[in-house]
Amino acid sequence: MQDHAVFFVALRYIFLGLFLASLLAGAAVLRYYQQLFGIDPQQPSENGGARLYSKTLIFAIWAHAVALTGGIAWMMW
């Protein structure tokens, strides 16, 4: 194999691994959903809007990570 072919094979597996890791991270967020986004008695000033904002940010970052790594892994295959 030529050097650039080995490089692309390595990139394929790197992005495939990153894609799978981002899916597993999403599963971990779902598993610990209540701990992460539930009501915190230590923060009495936190309201539903603040929790919704946190959920939205986490979901947006996760969705972009899945789309980016999955798209690059798919394009290189």
How would you summarize this macromolecular structure in one to three sentences?
This protein is mostly helical. It is 82% helix and 0% strand.
Name the features:
77 residues, mainly alpha
What is the fold's blueprint, element by element?
Layout: H1 3-31, H2 33-37, H3 48-76
Total helical segments: 3
Shape verdict: elongated
Distance between the termini: 17 Å
Given helix and strand content, the structural type is mainly alpha
Mean pLDDT: 91
Uncertain residue segments: none
Number of strands: 0
Percentage of residues in helical conformation = over 70%
Q: How would a crystallographer describe the biggest sheet? A: none
- List the domain count as a whole number: 1
Secondary-structure element series: HHH
- Rg from alpha-carbon coordinates: 18 Å
Beta content comes to under 5%
What does this structure look like?
- The protein has 3 helices and no strands.
- It has 77 residues and is an all-alpha fold.
- The chain has one domain (3-76).
- The model has no long low-confidence stretch (mean pLDDT 91).
